[in-house]
Amino acid sequence: MRHPLPEPFQVLSGQLSRLPGLGPKSAMRAAMALLKWPEAETRRLGETIFTLRDRLCICSRCGALSDTDPCSLCLDPDRDDSVLCVVSDWDSMLTLEEGGFYQGRYFLLGDHFRPGESEESRAELCRLIDRISDGKVREVVFALGSTLEAEAAATFFAGMLRKSFPELIITRPAQGIPLGAEIRFMDRETLRQSLCYRQKLA
Fold it and tell me: Which residues lie below 8 Å from residue 74, measured CB to CB, with a gap of 6+?
């Protein structure tokens, strides 16, 4: 007969397994690791998790997760106000920031960037239009990814923005063959994108 796991341990493992990247076995190992921590550290972790929602907010300017409103990026006077990069999530924004090569502003569409006439899409479009209406933005970069859904969303939002801001430059990151790859290993869609968005050699 297998020895049953104590109920508090099962509850904790079950909650941890709901986190991205943690399956049942990984969650169980994480729970075991927590049991080995000093009591003060586990209590500190619990308090941090408990107060997390109270200490964080959504930036009213860009939609990013922050502990201030507006967030530090929106308050940074050295950022370029003329370029607005539209991303689908906070992870994408962090990835761009870690690269250190983009110095413009951000706008997060969140989970509601699906194209169409849904209430969520209209709400996001209104937010985006309000963000651009101050007259400082000259270019909007749709960095939503290259999935079919992201392509459709970028096309939808770009079309709506052109109606309200005909002078606005609308772009997206270049797509195609990654650095170090060979043509013969590329799939058809990647090859199509690379030829459509080919660049001049310097």
Answer: 59, 61, 62, 105
What pLDDT, on the 0 to 100 scale, is given for residue 155? Answer: 86
Residue type, position 71, single letter? C
Is 13 exposed, middle or buried, given 0-12, 13-18 or 19+ CB atoms closer than 10 A? buried
CB within 8 Å of 17: residues ≥ 6 apart: 23, 24, 26, 27
Give Cα separations from 57 to 65, 89, 117 (angstroms). Answer: 6, 15, 28
Q: Can you give the pLDDT at residue 37?
A: 94
The dihedral through the CA atoms of 194, 103, 157, 170 has a sign that is negative
DSSP of 18-53, one letter per residue? TSTT--HHHHHHHHHHHHHS-HHHHHHHHHHHHHHH
Burial of 152: CB neighbours in 10 Å, binned 0-12, 13-18, 19+: middle
End-to-end CA distance of the chain: 72
Ranges in the chain, pLDDT < 50: 1
Q: Residue 152 to residues 5, 28, 80, 148: CA-CA distances in angstroms?
A: 48, 40, 27, 6
With contact defined as beta carbons under 8 Å apart, do 55 and 67 qualify? yes
What integer pLDDT is reported at residue 194 of this predicted model? 78
Is residue 120 classed exposed, middle or buried when 0-12, 13-18 and 19+ CB atoms within 10 A define those classes? middle
- CB 15: neighbour CB atoms within 10 A? 12
Write phi, then psi, for 135 (nearest 5 degrees). 85, -5
pLDDT given for residue 184 in this prediction: 80
